[in-house]
Fold these 4 entries.
Entry 1:
Amino acid sequence: MDDPNTTRRDEIAAGLAEVERRITGACEAAGRSRREITLVAVTKTYPASDVRILTALGVHDVAENRDQEAAAKASECADLPLTWHFVGQLQTNKARSVVSYADMIHSVDRPRLVEALGREAVKAERRVTCLVQVALDEDPGRGGVIPAELPALAGMIARTEGLALGGVMAVAPLRGDPNRAFARLLELSSAMQEEHPDATVVSAGMSGDLAEAIANGATHLRVGTALLGRRKPFVR
C-alpha cells in the first residue's frame, strides 16, 4: 500500500510543476521575468501538513481567508520560514488576531478596518503590509472599495502607524473579461504609485486567470485549486 504522505507530496509537486509551467509561459508571453511574480499558495481548507509539503517544495508565501483556521495553522507552522497572507473579507473584531500572524493583508477596504489594524499592530509592535482591495465590478458584496475611493483609503493606510501601504488587490468580476478588469487594476495601481511610489504590489489572478493577471502587471498570484486540487474540505 502506498504511503499516503508520499502520495500527497507527489500530488502537490505535480500541481506546483504545472502552475510553474503556466506562470513561466505567461511571463514569456508578456515579456516579463519570472522573478517579478510571487506565487501565494492559498491553503484554506487544507491541513498544515500540506503547508509543510509546499514549504519543502520551495513555496514560502501562503494565504488563508478565515481567521480561525489561519491562526491555528500559523501557530502549527510557526517553525517554518513562511510569509503569511490574509486574503479574505475581514471583520474589525478579528484585527488583533490577524495582526498577530499576517505579514500582508490583501483585503483592506474601509477606514474602520484601517484604524483597527493600525491600533492592534502598534500594540503587537508589528508593521503589517496592507493592500487596498478594489471592487472592479463595483459589487460591495464581494468586498473592496470602488475605484473613486482608492486614493483616500490608500492615503489613510500610508499615514497609519503600524501599517505599510503595499499596493492593491482585486478579484476578477464573476462575469466579464478578466483582461479588461486587470488592465483597469494596473491603471489604478500606476496612478496610486505617483503618490505612493513604494506601493508596488498588484495582487491579482487565481487558478483560472493567472495568465491574464501576469499580462496586466500582477506581482502576486493567489493560487489554491491548481496547486492543491479539489479535495474534501479539511475541517479542524
Entry 2:
Amino acid sequence: MTGKPLMAKATAVWLVDNTTITFKQIADFTGMHELEVQGIADGDVAAGVKGFDPVANNQLTQGDIEKAEADAFHRLALKFNPSAVGEEKRRGPRYTPLSKRQDRPNAILWLVKFHPELTDGQIAKLVGTTKPTIQSIRERTHWNISNMQPIDPVALGLCKQSELDSAVQKAAAKKAADGTAMTDDERRKLLSTNQSLSMDTEPRIPTAIEGLETFSLSEDDEEEEDNKSTLVDADSFFNLPNDAPEDDEDD
C-alpha cells in the first residue's frame, strides 16, 4: 500500500525505540530519509517527540513487525482500514490554508470580473468558498467590497492554472451547447492560457478609425487642393527680381 502512516515522525520514534527494524525499513514505511531515521536513533532529530504506537493505533500489525525484524528485506505495509476507502475521493470544498483565506475575496472578485461565464459552483470549487460569499461579491454587497481588488487566484496559489483552464473550457462548452451568442471579449476569455499564447498576433484597426484605409479625396477637395497649389507665397509679391528695371527719375 502506498499510503503513509499518521504522525510519521512520531511513528518512526516509536519504531526506533521499540523494535530492531533497520533504519531503511522504518524510512520506507514512514516516507522519511534513512539518515533522518538514523538521526532519531542518535538523538539529533525529533528530540522531545513522543513515540506514536502504530500497532495500538491500527496502522501496523505485530506480526508484520516481527517479520520485518526477522528479515531485513521485508517491507512494512500500512494496515488496511476499510473506513478509509474512498476518503481521498471525498467531494467537498477545497481546503484553503489559514494564511491564504484572507485572499479568497480578491480571487473571487477577479474570477467574477474576468470570467463572468463561470458558475458559482465552479468558482467555489476553484478557491474553496461558499456560494453566498460569491453572490455577495457579484452584487457588490460584501462587507469589505470597498477594500477588495481583483487578484488572479493562480498567482495567489489558491488553484492551479490547469484547473482554471479546465473550468473555463467547460464554460465554453456549455455556452456552445446552449447556443448562446458570445462577444469577441467572451470568446477571448474562454481560451486557455496555452491557446492564447500559441495564437498568432493579428494587428487590428481600431474601431474609431475603421474604414479610413479606403478614404479618398472628393472632387471638391481635389479642386481646393489645385487652387492652393496656384496661390503664390505672399513674400514673393514684395521680392522683386534683382534685374528688374528701375523707373527713370524725372529730369
Entry 3:
Amino acid sequence: MPKFLRIGIHWSNVSGYTSKAWCVRRVGSVVFLKWGAVEVQGAGAGRKVYWTHPPQEKTVRCGTAQRAQDYMKAAIARRRNHRYEPLAGAIALQRRSAVAGAELKQALATILIVDIVGSTAKAAKLGDARWTKVMGHYYAAVRKELKSSRGKEVVTTGDGVLATFKAPVAGINCAAAIQKAVRTLGLEIRVGLHAGEYTMSGGEMVGLAFHICTRVAAKARAGEVLVSSAVKDLLKAQSQIRFADHGNHQLKGVPERWRLYRVEG
C-alpha cells in the first residue's frame, strides 16, 4: 500500500512534528483510502510514525481496473503537490504512553529550521529520479554542517530540517555554512532561528519554542536567515555577527508580536 506523510506542527505536541498520513491501495476496480493525523518520533532510519486517532477510511468503486489505476495516479500526484513525502515504513496504531511519573526536564536551546524555497517547482522540473538524488546530497550536506557545528538533528520535515544548538552563535554559523553548501546543488533555502525552553518528557521534546521557530522561518525569503529577538538578545556580546531589523511581526498562532532580525554578511 503506497503511503505518504506530510509533516507540520501540532500546538500540543510540537516535538513529534506530526501532520497527516495518507494511504492508498487498489484491488481490481476498487480503491481503498486511509488517512488521518499522525505523530512522528525521531528522524532518518530511526523515525517512527503513529496514528494519533483511528484513521478515516473510504472505498471508491471505479467500475474498471483502468479507471481505478487512473484514480490512484491522480490522487498520488495531488498529495505530492501538497508536500507529502513517500513513507516506506509502517504506521503503528498507537504510540506507547510514557512511563507514568516520568521526570520532566527543562532545557534552553537555540532552535534552527531549514526549508528549501520552491521545492515543488524544482522537483517538477527535475523529475522524481533526479530530485531524489539532489535531496540525498542536500540532506548529506545539512548533516555534515550540523555535525561540524555540534548541532543535534531533531527531525526532518519533507524538505526541511529542525535542529537544536547549545549556543546561538553555533546555530547562526551553521545556517551560513548550510546556505553555502546547498547553493552548489542549485538550491535556495530560508532559515529561522529562535531560542527558548523546551521540556524533555519520556525522551520527547515538547515546547512552544519549536512552534515559534517555524513561524520565524516562514517569514524568511530565499537566501535569508532570520532570528527572533530572543536569539539577538543572547548575542549582544558577539560583535562579529551583524543584524538588520526585519520589523515587528505577528506570528501565526503565537501570542503577541515578535521583532525579527536578518543576519547580515
Entry 4:
Amino acid sequence: MSSKTAATTNRPWLVGVREAIPLLGGYIPVAISFGLIAVQSGFSGWEAVLISTLVYAGASQFLFVAMVAAGAPLWFVVVMTLLINARHVVYGPNIAPWLTTSRWWPWLMHGLTDQIFALSHVRLPQLQPRDRMGWYIGVSVVAWFSWIGGTAIGAVAGKELTQRWPLLGEVMPFALPALFLVLLAPRFANRLWAITLGATVIIALLFAVNGMKNAAIPIAAVCGALVYYGISALAREKTRRGGESRNG
C-alpha cells in the first residue's frame, strides 16, 4: 500500500478538508455579502453570525433578513424558508445509498448544502464505506466554518471592502451559484438529472422575468423535486411492466 493510499484510508477527514478548499472561493465572498446585507437590514453582527451558524442556508438567509426587515409575519418567513429548502427532498435520497449505518448522519445533514451535495454525489461512491463519514465531516466542517467566518467579515468590514473595491460588491453574490453549477455540471450527463435541472431553471426564469423574483426560487425548487420523483416513478413503472411482459 502506498503512503498516499494509507493516508487516505487512515485520515479520510483530512482528504475531505483538502477537497473542500476549492469551495472557499464560492462560500466566503457570498458569506461576506450576507454579513453586510444583514447588518444593513438592522441585524447586529452577532445576530448575522448566529443566523449563519444555525440556519446555514444561503438563499434562505438572504430571504430571511429581507422579510424580517420588511416586517413580514413569522409564519410567512418560515413557510418561504421551507419552500426554498425543498430541494433537499431531492438531495437526501440521492446520497442516502452511500451513507453508512450510523446515528450521527442525521446530525451531520446540517452541513448538507448545494455544493456539499454536488461534491458528495460524486465522491461518496468512490470512497470506501469506512472512509465516507470522515470525509464528509472534513468537507462539511470546512465549508461551515468558512461560511461563518465570511459572515463575520462581512458584518464587521463588508462596507469598507465594497467601498474600496466596488466591483467586489457586484461579483460576490454570483460566486456561490457559479460554484454550484461547476460542481453540478457532470450531472447533466444523466438524463433524469438533465430534465430535472432544466425544468427547474426554466420555471425559475419564467417567474423571475414576470416580476416574481422572490417566488421564483422556492416554487422552482418544489417543481424540480416533483419532476424528479415523477420521472423516477414513471421509469420504475415502465421497468415493472416490462418485466411483467417478459415473464408473461
